[in-house]
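It is worth pausing here to work through a concrete case rather than discussing structure prediction in the abstract. The textbook approach is simple: state the sequence, then state the predicted structure, then interpret. We follow exactly that order.
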Amino acid sequence: MPEQVGEVGETSQVSENGEGAAPQGGSVEPARVRQLWHLLEPLHAVLYYAPEAFEEAAALGFDTRERWPSYFPYRAAPLGEAGPQRVASAFYSFSPRMVAEHVGPAWRIASPGAVLEARTRAVDRAYRALFGDGVDSPELAEAAALARRAAEAADPAARPLAAANAALPWPQAPHLQLWHAATILREHRGDGHLAALLLAGLDPVESLVSFAAIGAASVERFESRGWSPGEWAAARDRLTARGLVEVDGTATEAGRALRHRVERHTDQLAAGPWQSLGPDGVDRLTGLLGDYWVAVLGSGLLPSETTLGIGKV
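Step two, the predicted structure:
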């Protein structure tokens, strides 16, 4: 995910040697920023796995025998009728062929506006199924208000997916506000992560090879991004030539250090919105999200291993 050297309006800077400076003007530590991502990501990801989401996608005419035909339009719809090249650029780690396969026909099946309406219905139904009466609880409303405050503090500059989601109108229901805030914040982090990968000199497939090399997920799991065995092997060879990956695909000490810097920079670039809450607000939100996080993970909807490396980085 892209990274800038000294992002205006954000709380982190990157020095000439690639090390990130400590956050400026706030006291929420990078470790807490990553913890909040771990808590919010499952709440966002429900959209891509819940049966209600597949039902809504099927009603629009999308193939739901696997998740990708609905994943790409659901996630890309805030960009408008974006073509495969633009979506591949924003999503970064997916093979352009895979993006074209699913985005190419997407807007002929349903308009971005129709997809956005469907995803709102999907999240509404999925959250009600997962949380029951909890969707109307004061605790969820408080969590939504805190998450929204953080999301509204997110600087969208140079962050296309975060900006596109932030430009959408806020839903009225608190549980939908919580999902919308989680989505803005995860895309804000994701856009920043692309910047960190660019600064590290990792192209889309190299970013996956280097991540697999440190054990973030299995090589088989990363095959879901659509790269051919030849493209994967070529990327591994490039990283081996740079001294970052061994010939067996495992990371060298230098490779691990580089990935550590990428994740550290990502945390720093994602910190800005959370400084708006301060440590007390972050602590309160963390406590409020626990039950909902457990409900999503306990539902069995999400895969136990993901390409995001949650729980491993």
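Step three, interpretation. Residues 174-199 form the longest helix (26 residues). Residues 104 and 274 are 36 Å apart (CA to CA).
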